[in-house]
Amino acid sequence: MRQLEAEQRVFDRILAHARDWLSELENLRDRDARRRAVLEGVAPDIRSLSPSGQRRLMELVGVRVDIADPEFRYREGTKCLTIRWHERTGTPVPPDPTDSQWARIEDLLRSRYRPHHFRSPLDPRAALTGMLHRLRTGILWRDLPDRFGAPEKVRFRQRTWLADGVWPEIVKLLDEEGVGTPVLSYAAGPELAIRTALDAEAHLNTQDGPDAVNPVKIS
């Protein structure tokens, strides 16, 4: 008899929890319906609302903007001009120079620049290899390995070659066989995921679980 009474108390607690859950679910559904009614009634273009109206609408639906990629690293400044040139022209990043190719590139450089251009402690071949390495990997200038030379000096040399029209000629000499790789460029800003309270409530109304919700992503 005592065992039956104990089991009855357990069932009563389970039933009470179930009723509380159903009540909360019904409240969420009602709130969802009210929010959807408001959204359907607002102007199609949110920009036509006043700033206070826009803020009220965002608060109503519980808008939250998150960074979709937690490993994103902000990149200071504007995008590298050389990367922009490769993207604009669709030119791939060529392989590192062979000895014969470097001899031709060195002749090109000496035909375009005066001797003082080569008096820098920067090794021009190592610097060129570093430039190509960075374009392939998308690393920041400050992360350029030391074996290629001081990052700021390599960066300045690349900008000089690009501004003088020498960089396209170097790339053409290196990519004669067309075996280059696409330039790897990262976005200046992270990909963002926009979520609302409606997304969270949708988890309770689907059998597919959280994975069924697909927040809008912008970049």
Estimate the strand proportion.
Answer: 5-15%
Q: What shape does the CA trace take? A: elongated
Structural class: mainly alpha
Q: What's the alpha carbon Rg, rounded to whole Å? A: 30 Å
The largest β sheet comes out as: 3 strands, antiparallel
Low-confidence runs? 206-219
Helix content: 40-55%
Mean pLDDT metric: 78
The total count of strands amounts to 3
CA-CA gap between termini: 65 Å
- Elements, N to C (H/E): HHEHHHHHEHE
Strand order of the largest sheet: 1-2-3
Describe the model.
The chain is built from 8 helices and 3 strands, in the order ααβαααααβαβ. The longest helix has 40 residues. α4 packs antiparallel against α7 and α5 packs across α6. The protein is elongated, with a radius of gyration of 30 Å. The protein folds into 2 domains: 100 residues, no CATH class; 94 residues, no CATH class. The protein is mostly helical and 219 residues long. Helices cover 53% and strands 5% of the residues. It has a 3-stranded antiparallel β-sheet. The C terminus is likely disordered. It starts with a helix and ends with a strand.
Care to give the gist of this entry?
The chain has 219 residues and is mainly α. It is 53% helix and 5% strand.
Question: How are the SSEs ordered, and which strands pair?
Answer:
Blueprint: H1 2-41, H2 51-61, E1 64-67, H3 81-89, H4 99-112, H5 124-137, H6 151-163, H7 166-174, E2 192-195, H8 197-202, E3 216-218
Antiparallel strand pairs: 1-2, 2-3
Helix pairs in contact: 4-7, 5-6
Characteristics:
3 strands, mainly alpha, 219 residues, elongated, 2 domains, 3-stranded antiparallel β-sheet
